[in-house]
């Protein structure tokens, strides 16, 4: 998995670049934390499931 990705940021109001701030493996799959490079808004992905939705 890459260290950066494009994702919609609800704080900035559009597509922004996010960086991976942490990653670990759980029994559910890989858990990754992402942060917006502009406003520091964060979200979590667990095995591809997005916490923002």
Explained architecture:
The chain is an all-beta fold. The chain has a single domain (4-50), classed as N-terminal domain of TfIIb (Single Sheet), CATH 2.20.25. 0% of the residues lie in helices and 64% in strands. It has no helices and five strands. The chain has strands spanning 4-9, 14-26, 29-36, 42-46, 49-50. It has a five-stranded antiparallel sheet, with no helix packed on it. A hairpin with a 4-residue loop joins strand 1 (4-9) and strand 2 (14-26). The chain starts with a strand and ends with a strand. The relative contact order is 0.26.
Number of helices: 0
CATH class group: Mainly Beta
Task: Return the domain count.
Answer: 1
The average pLDDT value, as a whole number, equals 91
List segments where confidence is low: pLDDT < 50 over at least 5 consecutive residues: none
The amount of beta strand, in percent, is over 45%
Largest sheet: 5 strands, antiparallel
Distance between the termini: 21 Å
Give the H and E element order.
EEEEE
**Total strands:** 5
* Rg computed from alpha carbons, rounded to a whole number of angstroms: 11 Å
CATH overall fold name: N-terminal domain of TfIIb
CATH architecture: Single Sheet
